[in-house]
Design a protein that fits this description.
414 residues, 7-stranded mixed β-sheet, 5-stranded antiparallel β-sheet, mainly beta
Length: 414
C-alpha cells in the first residue's frame, strides 16, 4: 500500500518560501549545502508585483512522497539553466468559439509559437489515404502534453518473452510507444485506422505540423521523423529526450546526429548518446537531466529586466507581459559568519489563468568551513538568510542514537 500524501507545505515567510539543506552524496560527510527560495508574483497586463508566498512544490526529500518523481518539482538542488514554463489553457478573446488560434511565448528574442486546434478526427478516403476532419470550435483548450502529438499504437507487434525482467519492463514500455510523448494523441504506426476513433493533436508547431502524408508512421523504427510534441508544459521523466541523459534509450534507438530534429534545432548536442552513456557506470546524473521545461525552453543568460510575454492564455487579457524581477540577496552561515552566495534562477513558471508568476532560485555553499554529519550530530547550525531577513534554519534530522532509542520504546507489533 502506498503511503499517504504528506500534508501541504506552508511557506516559511509571507513574502517567500525557502529551505536550506545538505546536498546528498555517496560521502557520509556532506561537502556542499544548498538553499532554495520561491517567490510568487501577481501578473497584470504589463507588469508583475510581489504577492503572498506559495509553497515550494513536491519535496523530493520526503520518503512518503507519491508519486516519487513528478514533473515540475521545485526541489532539484542544482540547475545549470533556467526552465521557462507556462501552464494553463489557450483562450479565444471575448469567449468567442473558434476552430484554431496561435498562442505565443516570448522571452527576450526567443519566441515559441503553438498552433492550437479544436478537436479533429481521421477517416480514410476512397483511395485509403488519411483524411483530416475539420476542427471543432472551442473557447478554452488545455495546453498540456496530453493534447500534443504522441501516444502509442498497441498494434505494433512485440516478440513474446518469458524473462521476468523483460516482462516487468514491458509494463512501462512498448515498441508502439512514441518516445517523445507517450501521453499525447495522433501517433499511429500500423498503416490502417484502429477500431477506436483517432484524435489528432490539438497543439502543434506551425512549422512542423502532422500532415496526412506523415500520419501513418509505418515503421516504428522511424518514430524520430515524426513531429516534435509542441507544448509549454513541464517535460516528465518518462519523455525522450529527458531520459536520454541517464543513458537510457528508446525501444528503437534514434540517430544522434542532424537526422534527429532535436539535434538539428540545437535542443540536444550531437553524439548525445556517447556524452551521457557513463551515467550507469558513475551514477552521476548529468545536469541537463534536471531541466524539465519543454523543448527549447531551458535558457541561459536571463538577467533582471529580461522581457517576457504570453499571448492567448488568459480569458480577459490577450497578452500578459512583465520584466524579470531582480534576484534575492542570499547568504549562508555555518560558523556564525555570513557568506554571500550567487543565486541561480532555476525556473520561471507563468500561470496566465491565475495571473501568477513563480520564480525559484537555488544557491550552493561550498566548501563548508566545518564538517557536520546529519544523523550523527544533534546540533548543526546551518542556516540561510534571504534579503537580510531572519535566518532560515536547517532542520536537523534525528540522530541514529535517537532513532534507536525510540525504536526500543515502541511496543512489539505496534
Amino acid at each position: 500500500m502506498n503511503a499517504p500524501n504528506p500534508p501541504k507545505r506552508k511557506p516559511v515567510r509571507d513574502r517567500y518560501d525557502a529551505i536550506v539543506d545538505y546536498e546528498k552524496t555517496s560521502n557520509t560527510t556532506p561537502e556542499t549545502a544548498y538553499g532554495l527560495v520561491k517567490f510568487t508574483y501577481d501578473l497584470g497586463p504589463a507588469a508583475c508585483s510581489l504577492a503572498q508566498a506559495e509553497p515550494l512544490f513536491h519535496d523530493l526529500r520526503d520518503p512518503n512522497l507519491e508519486p516519487r518523481l513528478c514533473a515540475g518539482s521545485d526541489f532539484w538542488p542544482y540547475k545549470t539553466a533556467t526552465d521557462v514554463v507556462v501552464t494553463g489553457s489557450a483562450w479565444h478573446r471575448g469567449g468567442v468559439a473558434m476552430p484554431w488560434r496561435n498562442i505565443i511565448l516570448n522571452v527576450a528574442k526567443r519566441t515559441k509559437v503553438i498552433r492550437v486546434t479544436g478537436r479533429r478526427t481521421v477517416t480514410l478516403g476512397p483511395n485509403g489515404n488519411p483524411v483530416f476532419g475539420s476542427p471543432e470550435l472551442f473557447t478554452e483548450l488545455e495546453v498540456i502534453n496530453a493534447n500534443a502529438y504522441g501516444g502509442w499504437d498497441a498494434r505494433v507487434p512485440m516478440q513474446p518473452s518469458t524473462d521476468l525482467t523483460d516482462i516487468l519492463i514491458r509494463q512501462y514500455d512498448h515498441p508502439g510507444v512514441y518516445p517523445r510523448n507517450p501521453f499525447g494523441k495522433g501517433y499511429v504506426v500500423v498503416p490502417q485506422l484502429p477500431d477506436n476513433e483517432v484524435e489528432l493533436p490539438h497543439l502543434e508547431d506551425p512549422q512542423d505540423p502532422l500532415t496526412p502524408e506523415r500520419f501513418f508512421v509505418r515503421d516504428p523504427k522511424l518514430w524520430f521523423r515524426q513531429p516534435l510534441p509542441w507544448c509549454f508544459d513541464w517535460t516528465g521523466p518518462l519523455m525522450y529526450h529527458r531520459y536520454a541523459y541517464l543513458g537510457e534509450d528508446a525501444w528503437f534507438p534514434a540517430p544522434d546526429d542532424e537526422r534527429m530534429p532535436e539535434v538539428k534545432r540545437g535542443m540536444l548536442p550531437p553524439k548525445y548518446r556517447e556524452l551521457f552513456r557513463d551515467f550507469k557506470r558513475t551514477m552521476v546524473v548529468p545536469p541537463p537531466y534536471f531541466q524539465e521545461s519543454s523543448l527549447g525552453m531551458a535558457l541561459t543568460g536571463l538577467t533582471p529586466g529580461t522581457p517576457f510575454s504570453v499571448v492567448g492564455m488568459n480569458p480577459e487579457h490577450e497578452t500578459l507581459s512583465f520584466l524579470l524581477p531582480p534576484p534575492p540577496k542570499l547568504e549562508f552561515s555555518l560558523e556564525q559568519k555570513w557568506e554571500p552566495v550567487l543565486p541561480r534562477l532555476h525556473s520561471v513558471l507563468v500561470l496566465p489563468g491565475r495571473r501568477k508568476l513563480q520564480l525559484v532560485y537555488g544557491a550552493t555553499y561550498s566548501p563548508l568551513p566545518r564538517k557536520y554529519v546529519p544523523g550523527v550530530h544533534a546540533k548543526i547550525p546551518l542556516c540561510m538568510r534571504v534579503d537580510g531577513d531572519s535566518p532560515i534554519l536547517y532542520e536537523v534530522p534525528k540522530t541514529i542514537g535517537e532513532t534507536y532509542r525510540e525504536s526500543r520504546k515502541t511496543p512489539p507489533g505496534a
